[in-house]
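Write out this protein's structure.
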Amino acid sequence: MGDVLNLRLARKKRDRQRDADNAAARRLVHGRSKAERKLEGAQRDKSASNLDGHRIGSGEANEVPGR
């Protein structure tokens, strides 16, 4: 005769393992290293400053009052 198996505990163990496997797969797909995050931030800042440098203003903000 086989060993007695608690089905509730076996089901919980199976679910925990399945969740751990899903989490590992998602980390591979969506995870980024610190260097990648830092590089993306630097590129975003550079593109924003580049865009701001090419804006054409109305001229009112650059005028000095009284001249």
